[in-house]
């Protein structure tokens, strides 16, 4: 289906495809990555793969759409000091290898790609910092998470390259590359060992949601798009949730599930996984609910962690809101503002899920008071 944003879609798929190639190169040598990981001020990890993928994607965006601003997760501050020279050189090598790879069909040398297009270290760091925009409600902007689920990436599990176009606060296009997401019939819940045993051609996809243009799964080459849709809202929904316990309240998810199903034995069909691969699994019907209630209510969710998944799930027949049933607001800046949690579900089931979430919240408050 053609859309107003076809040109952006083509560029974004190309950028995510190349970034998946780059991150897969790093992923294939996870022993080495331990020495190539920094801890950021907020105690979260960042790897050479995150920086290099942001340099690559920003290179493509700045050449293809020079007037567009970018809200990217990473910045180059940790790579600039004298004593970061080894890491800086590795980031530059990874980024330049990906930038200079020969063009494939659909790509354009004018996007800053292909043989001879390498950049200096300084140019690459400046390109990373094109992601420093503060966001906001007006105009066109891209939001980029070069590796979402960095913790999963380091563990050998799920991660995603996530890119979205936001226009006047509305997400128009989302592209998510999931190099490790198992293809049917393999379960998306496979952990590192199971994933490592899967052949390359049994995993990986690039997911595309385009406002008014549907939700699609392409192969990792960005080819062979197939339409995807959410599940048929079963009675006992499979609950997609973060693997990392600090990112969402798992006990709360049990309480919500019990309210939806009437069960009381404390077990739920949870699918813990890192990254926006959860939104892809929901959009493809490999899970039925995505619940993310804050463990730390002061933490503000970042727009790059949700924008692409939001449009993908919506276009696949789902709905994503906060716990009050309000649509997420991508026009507030780099974050989604106050943290009321995130509820993704099949559209026809969404109102009931929000009711269950509200009931569980009331019960939690009552228990806290008692
Ligand atoms: N205390 C917290 N609560 C919720 N999300 C958090 C968090 N600390 C970090 N995150 C975000 O959670 C994202 C991963 O989400 P998930 O748990 O679904 O895999 C991280 O993205 P990165 O891995 O890109 O840094 C990070 O932005
Ligand atoms: Mg991070
Ligand atoms: Mg992220
Ligand atoms: Mg990230």
From TrEMBL:
EC identifiers of the protein: 3.1.3.7
Binding annotation for Mg(2+): 73, 145, 147-148, 305
Cofactor annotation: Mg(2+)
The keyword Nucleotide-binding is assigned to this record: no
Coiled coil: none
Keyword Hydrolase: yes
A Pfam family per the record: Inositol_P
Alphabetical list of InterPro entries matching this protein: DPNP, Inositol_monoP_superfamily, Inositol_monophosphatase-like, Inositol_monophosphatase_CS
Any GO molecular function: 3'(2'),5'-bisphosphate nucleotidase activity
Catalytic reaction(s) noted: adenosine 3',5'-bisphosphate + H2O = AMP + phosphate; adenosine 2',5'-bisphosphate + H2O = AMP + phosphate; 3'-phosphoadenylyl sulfate + H2O = adenosine 5'-phosphosulfate + phosphate
Keywords: Hydrolase, Magnesium, Metal-binding
Annotated Gene3D superfamilies: 3.40.190.80, Fructose-1,6-Bisphosphatase, subunit A, domain 1
PROSITE patterns tied to this protein: IMP_2
A GO biological-process term: phosphatidylinositol phosphate biosynthetic process
Record family assignment: Belongs to the inositol monophosphatase superfamily.
NCBIfam families named among the record's database cross-references: bisphos_HAL2
Protein name per its UniProtKB record: 3'(2'),5'-bisphosphate nucleotidase
Organism (species): Coniophora puteana (strain RWD-64-598)
């Amino acid at each position: 289906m053609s859309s107003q944003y076809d040109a952006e879609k083509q560029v974004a798929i190309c950028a995510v495809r190349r970034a998946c190639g780059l991150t897969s190169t790093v992923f294939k040598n996870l022993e080495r990555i331990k020495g190539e990981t920094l801890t950021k001020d907020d105690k979260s990890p960042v790897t050479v793969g995150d920086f290099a993928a942001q340099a690559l994607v920003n290179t493509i965006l700045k050449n293809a759409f020079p007037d567009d601003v970018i809200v990217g997760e990473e910045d180059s501050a940790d790579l600039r000091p004298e004593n970061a020279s080894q890491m800086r050189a590795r980031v530059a090598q990874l980024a330049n290898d990906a930038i200079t790879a020969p063009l494939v069909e659909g790509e354009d040398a004018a996007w800053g790609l292909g043989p001879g297009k390498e950049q200096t270290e300084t140019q690459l760091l400046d390109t990373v910092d094109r992601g420093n925009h503060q966001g906001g409600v007006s105009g066109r902007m891209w939001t980029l998470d070069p590796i979402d689920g960095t913790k999963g990436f380091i563990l050998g599990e799920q991660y995603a390259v996530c890119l979205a176009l936001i226009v006047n606060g509305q997400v128009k296009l989302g592209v998510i590359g999931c190099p490790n997401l198992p293809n049917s019939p393999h379960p998306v819940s496979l952990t590192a060992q199971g994933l490592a045993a899967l052949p390359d051609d049994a995993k990986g996809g690039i997911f595309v949601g385009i406002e008014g243009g549907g939700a699609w799964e392409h192969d990792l080459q960005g080819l062979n798009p197939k339409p995807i849709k959410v599940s048929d809202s079963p009675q006992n929904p499979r609950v997609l949730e973060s693997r990392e316990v600090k990112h969402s309240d798992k006990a709360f998810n049990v309480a919500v599930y019990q309210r939806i199903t009437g069960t009381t034995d404390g077990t739920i069909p949870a699918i813990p996984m890192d990254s926006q691969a959860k939104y892809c699994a929901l959009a493809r019907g490999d899970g039925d609910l995505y619940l993310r209630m804050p463990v730390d209510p002061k933490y503000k969710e970042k727009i790059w962690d949700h924008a692409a998944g939001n449009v993908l799930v919506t276009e696949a027949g789902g709905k994503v809101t906060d716990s009050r049933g309000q649509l997420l607001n991508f026009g507030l800046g780099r974050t989604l503002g106050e943290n009321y949690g995130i509820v993704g579900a099949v559209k026809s089931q969404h109102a009931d899920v929000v009711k269950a979430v509200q009931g569980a919240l009331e019960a939690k408050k009552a228990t806290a008071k008692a």
